[in-house]
């Protein structure tokens, strides 16, 4: 396979995952934000920005809920918005039309046009909730179809590797943003619910742990180590290792494999002993740094 097309597959996957992350955060926090005071929403919005690694992008001076979520989802001038990410995913997918299964192209195309069809120009309204939900559903269906339409070859592995790296980095960044040592206030129960829901974790956490036990420490442990749950960081790292094993049959990715293995060991070791708040926060940063290193190693392998 031509190198640049592998890179297109990888970037398409990362942009898709980024768009899904942004959309589900917007959907999950909309309900909380409508009920929260402006002061509480301001604190929450700072956590969201930090968790989504929005640092250098120009942001709205008005931090009200409608303006903030518009910036997060629909603002084409924000390169990290869901709209911008979906656009970039679609641009990469165009180059892959002859090898991308038709059903995947259709889901991606429909998700993009659904989101871009809105006439919203400056602020998000509760009436946009069904639109956001429908777009998320199409993107989740895209992910489900991957398993049926792709063989487990290097093409599939590059696609999944892009998704896992993006997802792991996003989870670690959002956990870092909610670390108590990073915040002046304590998030409310309702905000914690929105947090869990934004990671597709709320129902499972309610079933396995219980919301009565809701705390940052319990949430952190669950997201990092619940390896029977496919969205945990440990589980995703293990799956990433599997993808890299497939990729290594055709590409030299030993550095990416080594970094992933080292990160797996750090996560497991950190929870074999009592972890201080400082070391826990350091771990979240190390996960993000490692994901960036794996990303760079893979791009170098492509050449």
From TrEMBL:
Coiled coil: none annotated. InterPro entries: ATP-dep_Glu-Cys_Ligase-2, DUF403. Residues 5-298 form the DUF403 domain. It holds the Pfam family Alpha-E. This is DUF403 domain-containing protein. It comes from Methylacidiphilum fumariolicum (strain SolV). The lineage of its organism: Bacteria, Pseudomonadati, Verrucomicrobiota, Methylacidiphilae, Methylacidiphilales.
């Amino acid at each position: 396979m031509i190198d640049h097309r592998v890179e297109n597959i990888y970037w398409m996957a990362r942009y898709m995952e980024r768009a899904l992350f942004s959309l589900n955060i917007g959907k999950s926090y909309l309900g909380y934000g409508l009920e929260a005071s402006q002061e509480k929403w301001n604190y929450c919005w700072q956590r969201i920005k930090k968790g989504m690694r929005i640092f250098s992008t120009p942001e709205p001076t008005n931090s009200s809920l409608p303006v903030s979520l518009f910036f997060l989802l629909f603002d084409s001038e924000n390169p990290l918005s869901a709209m911008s990410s979906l656009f970039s995913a679609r641009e990469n997918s165009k180059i892959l039309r002859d090898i991308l299964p038709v059903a995947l192209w259709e889901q991606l195309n429909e998700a993009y046009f659904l989101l871009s069809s809105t006439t919203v120009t400056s602020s998000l309204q509760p009436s946009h909730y069904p639109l956001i939900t429908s777009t998320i559903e199409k993107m989740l269906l895209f992910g489900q179809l991957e398993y049926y339409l792709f063989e487990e070859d290097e093409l599939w592995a590059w696609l999944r590797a892009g998704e896992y790296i993006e997802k792991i980095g996003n989870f670690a960044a959002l956990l870092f943003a909610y670390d108590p040592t990073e915040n002046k206030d304590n998030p409310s129960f309702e905000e914690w619910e929105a947090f869990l829901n934004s990671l597709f974790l709320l129902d499972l956490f309610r079933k396995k742990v219980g919301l009565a036990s809701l705390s940052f420490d319990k949430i952190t442990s669950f997201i990092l180590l619940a390896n029977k749950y496919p969205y945990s960081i440990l589980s995703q790292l293990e799956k990433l290792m599997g993808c890299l094993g497939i990729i290594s049959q055709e590409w030299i990715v030993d550095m990416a494999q080594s970094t992933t293995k080292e990160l797996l060991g750090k996560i497991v070791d950190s929870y074999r002993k009592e972890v201080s708040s400082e070391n826990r926060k350091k771990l979240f940063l190390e996960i993000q740094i490692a994901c960036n290193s794996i990303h760079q190693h893979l791009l170098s392998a492509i050449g």
